[in-house]
C-alpha cells in the first residue's frame, strides 16, 4: 500500500494465541479487500487477502456490519510451522497469507510461468499494456484479459498462419519511459503547476499526511547555487535569474543524490520535469531506479499565481528574510511564459497516458489539500 492508505474497518480482539490484535481491513478494489492483524506485544503483522469473488460467495460487502462480521470470524491457524489468518465464514478460502519483504522477491523470482520466470512474464505483460495505453479502470481490465489469454500454463494449439509476419521496430517512447515497478525502486509523484500554483504548500501537506519525502527541484538548485563548493553554482544562478530552465543533467543529478541520501522510497518531485528535455533526461538516467506513479497538476490562473508570488516576496521582506531572486514582476512573466511554452506539453503528455491528476489550486490551501489527498489514499 503506497503511503498510508486508510482502513475501512478498525477493531481489536484476542485471537487463538490469547494475544491482543488490532484488526484492520483495507479496500483494494477492484481486487477485493486486505485484512491485517497486528499483534501488539511484538509488532508482528499477519495479512489475509480476500477476493471480490470470495466476498460475493460469503455474501459480504463493504458495509460496517459486513466488515464487523468478517473481523469477528477471524482466528489463527498453524500450518507447516507458519501462522495464518483464517475466516470461519463459508466461501472464503483458507488459509491465506501474503509474503512480505524478501519473501515476496524470493517467491516471485522462483515462480515459473511456462519457460519464463514470473517477473519476465509480467514485464512482457506490462510492456504490452504500455503500448496499448488504456487509462483508468480500463487498464486493469486490459491487463487482466491479457494475462488470461497469454497464460503459459494453459497451453493451446493454434493453426499456423499463412500470412507472412512482418516485424516492426518498437519505439522506446511507446513505453512511456517510466519503467516497470520493481522491488527497491524509488516511487515518485511529479508535482507540476505554474509559478505560485501552491506546489510547495501542497507538497508539505502531502509529506506530513502520507510520509512522502518532498524534493523541490527549485530548492535543490537554489541551494546548489549558494553552495561555495558547488561546481555549477554560477551557471545555475544565471539560468534562474533569466527565468530559464537549468540543464537537465544538473537537476537530475541533484534529485538522484537527494533520493539516495534520504534512505526513503516514496518521493514528491516538485517542479520537475519542466520540459521535454527534462522528461527525456529522466527516462535516460532514472528509469532503472525510479517509477513514476502519476503526475499531480495544480491548476490555477496567471492572476492568482502572480498575486501569490508578490505576496510571498512582500511577506519575506517584512519578516527580514531573504526574498527569492525570481519573486518580481518581470521574472514572474518570464517564468509564466516558460511554463505555458515548455511545461504544459509535459502535463498534456501525462494526461494522454492517463497519468495526470488535476486539482484546482485556486481555493484556500486546506480546501485544495482535501481534493489532493483523494489521490493518495
Structural description of this entry:
- It catalyses: UMP + ATP = UDP + ADP.
- Belongs to the adenylate kinase family.
- InterPro entries: Adenylat/UMP-CMP_kin, Adenylat_kinase_CS, Dpy-30_motif, P-loop_NTPase, UMP_CMP_kinase.
- This protein has 3 domains: 90 residues, no CATH class; 54 residues, no CATH class; 190 residues, 3-Layer(aba) Sandwich (Rossmann fold), CATH 3.40.50.300.
- The protein is built from 13 helices and 13 strands.
- The protein has a 5-stranded parallel β-sheet, sandwiched between helices.
- A hairpin with a 2-residue loop joins strand 5 and strand 6.
- The longest helix has 24 residues.
Mind describing the biggest β-sheet? 5 strands, parallel
Computed CA radius of gyration, to the nearest angstrom: 25 Å
CATH architecture of the largest domain: 3-Layer(aba) Sandwich
Strand content: 15-25%
Q: Give a count of the beta strands, DSSP E runs of length 2 or more.
A: 13
- The CATH topology assignment of the largest domain is Rossmann fold
**Amino-to-carboxy terminus distance:** 9 Å
Q: Which strand order spans the largest sheet, edge to edge or round the barrel?
A: 10-11-9-12-13
Strand-pairing-aware structural class: alpha/beta
Mean pLDDT: 80
Count of DSSP-assigned helices = 13
- Written as H for each helix and E for each strand, in order along the chain, the element string is EEEEHHEEHEEHHEHEHHHEHEHHEH
Helix proportion: 40-55%
* CATH superfamily (homologous) name of the largest domain: P-loop containing nucleotide triphosphate hydrolases
Number of domains: 3
Uncertain regions: pLDDT < 50 for 5+ in a row?
157-161, 163-177
CATH class of the largest domain: Alpha Beta
Shape: elongated
Pfam families: ADK, Dpy-30
Keywords: ATP-binding, Cytoplasm, Kinase, Nucleotide-binding, Nucleus, Pyrimidine biosynthesis, Transferase
GO molecular function, one term: phosphotransferase activity, phosphate group as acceptor
GO biological process, one term: pyrimidine nucleotide biosynthetic process
Amino acid at each position: 500500500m503506497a503511503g498510508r492508505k486508510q482502513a475501512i474497518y478498525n477493531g481489536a480482539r484476542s485471537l487463538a494465541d490469547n494475544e491482543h490484535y488490532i484488526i484492520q481491513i483495507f479496500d483494494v478494489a477492484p481486487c477485493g479487500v486486505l485484512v491485517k492483524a497486528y499483534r501488539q506485544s511484538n509488532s508482528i503483522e499477519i495479512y489475509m487477502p480476500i477476493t471480490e469473488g470470495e466476498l460475493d460467495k460469503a455474501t459480504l460487502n463493504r458495509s460496517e456490519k459486513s466488515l464487523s462480521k468478517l473481523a469477528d470470524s477471524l482466528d489463527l491457524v498453524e500450518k507447516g510451522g507458519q501462522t495464518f489468518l483464517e475466516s470461519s465464514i463459508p466461501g472464503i478460502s483458507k488459509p491465506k497469507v501474503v509474503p512480505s519483504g524478501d519473501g515476496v522477491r524470493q517467491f516471485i523470482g522462483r515462480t515459473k510461468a511456462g519457460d519464463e520466470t514470473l517477473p519476465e512474464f509480467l514485464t512482457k505483460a506490462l510492456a504490452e499494456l504500455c503500448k496499448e495505453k488504456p487509462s483508468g479502470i480500463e487498464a486493469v481490465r486490459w491487463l487482466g484479459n491479457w494475462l488470461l489469454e497469454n497464460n503459459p500454463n494453459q497451453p493451446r494449439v493454434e493453426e499456423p498462419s499463412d500470412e507472412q509476419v512482418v516485424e516492426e521496430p518498437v519505439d522506446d517512447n511507446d513505453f512511456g519511459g517510466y519503467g516497470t515497478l520493481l522491488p527497491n525502486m524509488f516511487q515518485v509523484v511529479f508535482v507540476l503547476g505554474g509559478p505560485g500554483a501552491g506546489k510547495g504548500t501542497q507538497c508539505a501537506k502531502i509529506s506530513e499526511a502520507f510520509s512522502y519525502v518532498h524534493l523541490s527541484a527549485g530548492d535543490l538548485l537554489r541551494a546548489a547555487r549558494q553552495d561555495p563548493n558547488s561546481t555549477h553554482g554560477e551557471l545555475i544562478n544565471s539560468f534562474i535569474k533569466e527565468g530559464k530552465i537549468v540543464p537537465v543533467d544538473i537537476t537530475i543529478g541533484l534529485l538522484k543524490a537527494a533520493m539516495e541520501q534520504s534512505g526513503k522510497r516514496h518521493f514528491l518531485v516538485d517542479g520537475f520535469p519542466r520540459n521535454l528535455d527534462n522528461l527525456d533526461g529522466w527516462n535516460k538516467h532514472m528509469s532503472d531506479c525510479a517509477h513514476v506513479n502519476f503526475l499531480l497538476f495544480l491548476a490555477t490562473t496567471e492572476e492568482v499565481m502572480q498575486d501569490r508570488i508578490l505576496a510571498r516576496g512582500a511577506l519575506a521582506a517584512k519578516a527580514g528574510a531573504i526574498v527569492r531572486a525570481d519573486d518580481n514582476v518581470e521574472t514572474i512573466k518570464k517564468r509564466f511564459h516558460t511554463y505555458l511554452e515548455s511545461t504544459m506539453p509535459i502535463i498534456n503528455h501525462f494526461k494522454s497516458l492517463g497519468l495526470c491528476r488535476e486539482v484546482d489550486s485556486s481555493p484556500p490551501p486546506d480546501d485544495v489539500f482535501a481534493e489532493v489527498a483523494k489521490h493518495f489514499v
